[in-house]
Amino acid sequence: MKHIASSSAPQAGHRHFVAPDARGFAHVETWIFDLDNTLYSHEAQVWPQIDDRITLFVANLFGIDGISARALQKHYYHKYGTTLRALMTEHDIDPYAFMDFVHDIDHRHIELNEALGAAIERLPGRRLILTNGSRRHAEAVAAKIGILDHFEDVFDLADANFTPKPNREAYDIFLARFSVDPAKAAMFEDIAKNLRAPHELGMTTTLVVPKTVDPFRDAFEQEAVEEPHINYITDDLAAFLADEVGARGG
Q1: What is the pLDDT of residues 178-227, one digit of tens each?
Q2: CATH number 1.10.10.10 given to 47-102
Q3: Domain ranges of the chain
Q4: What is residue 5's predicted lDDT score, i.e. its pLDDT?
């Protein structure tokens, strides 16, 4: 595990951390962002709804009660990385039906984030969303945040042939689809393990962690992991893009 040093000029209200040998941003031509819990905070109450919809889908599929469905869902998640991958592998379900069902949620708590929109708009080069969710979900959420128009495109789980991050294949398909040079790209993601492959490919990596603990997510998904494949850590993406990226020649 590598020591992560504090940024030399952190601003009040947020924390930035920089690995001593962190790759910079001056060379970056393509900016790649995960969606869920990266481009919005957990106060938006998006993930709890999706999580509950996944449980309901499993309950309906197998005709079991909610508690049993929840246990099976988490078993699948830890074994396969996503519940969908498990259901496709073991039960040959229609992935599009699953995606439509679990992303049928209420967006009322997603707030416009003008600061994030302005920071993303200032990034030079291409901007793309890479998500394990669906395009429809990503576009709806990004529109509510007020950032959709700042992105060239969305690459969703279907585009990756339903191979989810952190599998290397998902990133390889993404890079080929958009002709992205990973050595000239930066990846922003809320789950540490999903940054391992991008770092190995040569990307500058930033882990986005919550300001406060999200009780609806596993603890390991929220950790500020201090490992070699993490170049930067922040709990305020908008401020990070304005401060760290701008200061380092973004």
Answers
A1: 999 999 999 999 999 999 999 999 999 999 998 766 656 666 665 667 78
A2: no
A3: 5-45+109-247, 47-102
A4: 38
Q: What is the pLDDT of residues 80-136, one digit of tens each?
A: 888 999 999 999 999 999 999 999 999 998 999 999 999 999 999 999 999 999 999
Mean pLDDT of 222-248: 82
> How many whole angstroms separate alpha carbon 204 and alpha carbon 181?
12
> Which string of DSSP letters, residue by residue, matches the chain?
----EEPSSPPTT--EEE-TT---STT--EEEE--TTTSS-GGG--HHHHHHHHHHHHHHHHT--HHHHHHHHHHHHHHHSSHHHHHHHHH---HHHHHHHHT----TTPPP-HHHHHHHHTS-SEEEEE-SS-HHHHHHHHHHHT-GGG-SEEE-TTTTTT--TTSHHHHHHHHHHHT--GGGEEEEESSGGGGHHHHHHT-EEEEE--SS--TTS-GGGS----STT--EEES-HHHHIIIIIHHTT-
- Backbone phi, psi, residue 16, to 5°: -120, 140
Residue type, 54: I
User: Tell me: the pLDDT tens digits for 137-188?
Assistant: 999 999 999 999 999 999 999 999 999 999 999 999 999 999 999 999 999 9
Q: Which fold has domain 5-45+109-247?
A: Rossmann fold (3.40.50)
What is this structure's pTM? 0.88
